[in-house]
Design brief:
75% of the residues lie in helices and 0% in strands. The protein has 7 helices and no strands. Helix 3 packs parallel to helix 7, helix 4 packs antiparallel against helix 5 and helix 6 runs antiparallel to helix 7. The longest helix has 31 residues. The chain is globular and about 55 Å long.
């Protein structure tokens, strides 16, 4: 049994090896998750302004932030793999794939990068639906669904701004 360190307990809670099934998003998780949508919504709104300079800056900010978010979503799978003595190799592979897709999105021309980002967000949600249920984390799916829906609609709306001109 791993030794508990007092610093860990102070920072992260009493039991660093709590069963995953006990995990449920509280008000703080919901609040932080919803706050994390602010850059998606604001940068998307700016895409519809007539000033091209602001639009370009907002698109780059949206691409960068979206790439960070899909990397975070992939990183969750590495964290889940670390909890297991025999993590499935596919979980580790999937943990890296969103980061690579986010990097690709940043490299592409803005509207195409935004589409790659939208597909990446949806792909992460699709995989998470199965994995979270398998690991007893299904209680997190309503939060994940709301966050993914708003982020994806925002990114697609920003991409549409490029094709409507």
């Amino acid at each position: 049994m791993p030794r508990q360190h007092p610093e860990f307990a102070q920072m992260y809670g009493a039991d660093p090896i709590a069963p995953a099934a006990a995990s449920r998003p509280g008000a703080l998780a919901w609040g932080l998750g919803l706050a994390g949508l602010i850059p998606f919504v604001l940068a998307t709104a700016v895409q519809w302004l007539p000033q091209p300079g602001w639009r370009m800056l907002a698109a780059m900010a949206l691409l960068g932030y979206g790439a960070v978010i899909v990397s975070f979503l992939g990183g969750i799978h590495w964290g889940l793999a670390m909890r297991s003595l025999t993590a499935p190799p596919a979980r580790l592979v999937w943990g890296v794939l969103p980061s690579l897709l986010g990097w690709l999105a940043v490299l592409l021309d803005r509207p195409w990068g935004l589409l790659v980002l939208a597909l990446s967000l949806l792909g992460c949600w699709w995989v998470d639906r199965a994995v979270y249920r398998e690991l007893g984390l299904g209680a997190w799916l309503p939060l994940r669904t709301v966050l993914t829906a708003v982020a994806t609609v925002s990114v697609l709306t920003a991409a549409a701004a490029y094709w409507s001109v």
